[in-house]
Write a structure and sequence with these properties.
- There is one protein chain.
- This protein is α/β, with parallel strands linked by helices.
- It has 22 helices and ten strands.
- It has helices at about 5, 10-25, 30-35, 50-60, 65-70, 105-120, 160-175, 195-205, 220, 225-240, 255-260, 265-270, 280-320, 330-365, 380-390, 400-415, 430-470, 480-510, 520-535, 545-600, 600-605, 610-635; strands spanning about 40-45, 75-80, 90-95, 100, 130-140, 145-150, 180-185, 210-215, 245, 280.
- It has a ten-stranded mixed beta sheet with strand order 4-3-5-2-6-1-7-8-9-10, sandwiched between helices.
- Helix 16 (about 400-415) crosses helix 20 and helix 18 packs antiparallel against helix 20 (about 545-600).
- The longest helix is centred in the last third of the chain and has 56 residues, at about 545-600.
- It is elongated.
Length: about 625
């Protein structure tokens, strides 16, 4: 085969193939990286003539010992050159030293290949991350690199089941990769439905755009008769959809003998009008795969470059996390304290919506505290009295009517001596207000204490814990429990105690204080309650009772107005206090984190974790490999 035969610029194609081969060798052990390199994989079941086809393509005698060939991939690198007729073949087992073998010594080649495969296996049954690399330069080979994957076989024992599955999985992963061309070796002396690789390849390449079918065993298929052979060929071509199929005689000695031995098959293909789809002979195959592989590489190199650059960026991100050099305890402490405080600030900002909901819930509960009867009069007697003096039967006595009536009677019972109030509406009425203030503060105290407990619990779970967990690296995770305890003991506990003291102070102040500065709101609220309660008076039949109860209902309106005003102002006061308290708590937590992490005793406990060391080694290694691979393809 010459340059004129292929129509290729050998120098250009050699540059591409060599660069891709080197890149693949660099990345081979990292399967996720290796699959980003354009390739051409050869797949087929065991004993379908795969090795024979490769021998015809390359002129190399491949071992056909199924126990070996099943378990190791062979990367066959063929380069055409006019001055390399006597150049020895080189064989490399994984990353071992290259072995040179006389290309004319078939026995030596076969032994060298078997030895190389055994070296790659290292006593294992199967190897899918490394391969045997065979390099041959010769005037009569196509310019191509083919990766011969282990052949699929049927397990004959339970012990072999796992090996069979692993081989199938390897083939499945390789052919599903869009960067790979697929040379699918198919024996025509078998029905396609009995070939297990048929479904694997068809599922992986739905449109068969990457698949090239190589039909073997045609000489054996002739024994089944013309019609059966033609039927099988047509089914394979129809089902595969592949643009090109080739019939190859693996046992033929040369091009001419192959042409003679497959002449009858070629005639059947003509009869099927498939000569435009099926070519006969390894000469046709060599020319096609050289051109197809070269075009495939040129098409995929930009994508490969982009994929590797993306991976390089991921390495950079990961190395920024763990550092490119081993980190000192001081550097770890400084880095992690900064990370935790950064997370703390963000978590605190995110917490504000939860804080608002807590404040609104507290406000709602306070606002729902009602002025309830003190229980100092007989409720049944009050009910009877109200019923006796009710005249409008079309308007039944409501629950609120009963309640307001009882409250008015309780106000009357308390008496009017020593009622000095600062607010004008309550002059002479201080005693009544104080009585109800005492009943108001009990539920208020419970609400505020619950608010404090909920607030500190939420602060711990929503801010402190996540900030420590996210901020501490693997190297300082051991400090998590102690640091959390320190913050709880030195910061949170004190702040919580201060909050509870504030609640006690506020409750005592509310209980003793009968003054509000919000006169306008107080007046408006009292007026609204009075208008509502006055409506009751119209339903009393006896003028004398109406006259008697009216002053106390008026006082009730003023007391209800005061409590509404007090409840409104309380929530805002609590919110203002705790907003400042939370700011201080967050700042104190930040200071405690820094103080604890910078302490000499703490730094003595920090050691770079094995995970960090392992990650650094992994990503530095990946980064170097990717850079080297990109360097290889940079001229392309």
């Amino acid at each position: 085969m010459t340059n004129e035969d292929t129509g290729l610029n050998t120098s250009t194609s050699k540059t591409y193939f060599n660069a891709i081969d080197k890149a693949h060798e660099i990345l081979e052990c990292d399967r996720d990286l290796a699959e980003k390199v354009p390739s051409c994989v050869v797949v087929g079941m065991q004993s379908v003539g795969k090795s024979a086809v490769l021998s015809r393509v390359s002129g190399i005698s491949f071992p056909q010992d199924s126990e070996v060939c099943t378990r190791v991939a062979i990367e066959l690198r063929l380069r055409r050159g006019q001055n390399h007729a006597n150049k020895p073949i080189t064989i490399k087992a994984g990353d071992a030293e290259v072995v040179q073998v006389d290309k004319t010594d078939d026995k030596a080649i076969e032994n060298a290949l078997k030895n190389a495969q055994m070296k790659v296996l290292k006593g294992r049954q199967f190897e899918d991350k490394s391969s045997v690399k065979v390099m041959k330069e010769d005037p009569n080979v196509p310019e191509v690199t083919l990766i011969d994957l282990p052949g699929v076989f049927f397990a004959k024992s339970d012990d072999a089941d796992d090996l069979e599955d692993r081989v199938k999985q390897m083939i499945k992963e390789r052919v599903e990769n869009d960067m790979a061309l697929i040379l699918h070796v198919v024996p025509v002396n078998q029905d396609a439905d009995t070939i297990s690789t048929w479904r694997i390849v068809r599922d992986a390449d739905k449109e068969q755009a990457r698949t090239i079918s190589i039909l073997t065993k045609a000489d054996l298929a002739l024994k089944d008769g013309k019609d059966i052979l033609k039927k099988r060929i047509k089914k394979i071509v129809d089902d595969s959809k592949s643009s090109e199929c080739f019939v190859v005689h693996g046992a033929a000695k040369d091009f001419q003998s192959e042409e003679d031995q497959l002449a009858m098959v070629a005639g059947y293909i003509e009869e099927l009008y498939l000569s435009h789809r099926i070519k006969v002979g390894v000469r046709e195959l060599n020319e096609f795969i050289e051109n197809r592989m070269f075009e495939h590489i040129k098409e995929k190199v930009p994508e490969m470059r982009q994929l590797l650059e993306d991976e390089l960026q991921l390495c950079k991100v990961e190395l920024e996390k763990v550092g490119r050099e081993p980190i000192t305890p001081l550097a770890i402490a400084l880095r992690d304290s900064q990370s935790m405080t950064k997370n703390l600030i963000k978590a605190y900002a995110d917490f504000m919506s939860d804080y608002r909901r807590l404040v609104e819930g507290m406000h709602k509960e306070i606002y729902e505290i009602e002025m309830e009867p003190l229980g100092i009069i007989n409720a049944n007697e009050a009910k009877n009295k109200l019923t006796q003096n009710w005249q409008t039967h079309s308007h039944p006595i409501t629950v609120d009517c009963h309640k307001h009536h009882i409250l008015a009677l309780e106000i009357k019972k308390i008496g009017e001596d020593s009622r000095k109030l600062i607010n004008l509406p309550y002059v002479g009425k201080r005693k009544e207000l104080e009585k109800w203030l005492h009943t108001f503060v009990d539920p208020l105290k419970k609400i505020l204490k619950k608010f404090v407990e909920d607030l500190f619990s939420a602060f711990n779970h929503s801010i402190i814990q996540p900030s420590l967990e996210k901020g501490l690296s693997e190297s300082s995770k051991v400090l998590m429990k102690t640091l959390a305890m320190n913050i709880g003991k030195k910061v949170t506990s004190k702040a919580r105690g201060d909050a509870m003291n504030y609640v006690e102070y506020l409750v005592d102040s509310v209980k003793m204080n009968t003054y509000t500065t919000n006169d306008h709101y107080l007046t408006d609220s009292s007026k609204a309650f009075k208008e509502s309660i006055t409506h009751l008076l119209g339903h009393f039949s006896r003028p004398a009772y109406r006259t008697d109860i009216t002053p106390y209902l008026d006082t009730l309106s003023e007391l209800l107005g005061f409590f509404k005003t007090r409840k409104k102002m309380l929530s805002d006061s609590v919110q203002l206090h705790f907003t400042k308290a939370l700011d201080d708590l967050n700042k104190s937590t930040e200071e405690e984190i820094v103080a604890y992490m910078m302490a000499e005793k703490t730094r003595a406990m920090i050691r770079e974790s094995p995970i960090c060391v392992s990650k650094r080694k992994l990503y530095l290694d990946r980064e170097n490999k990717i850079k080297a691979a990109l360097e290889e393809i940079s001229p392309l």
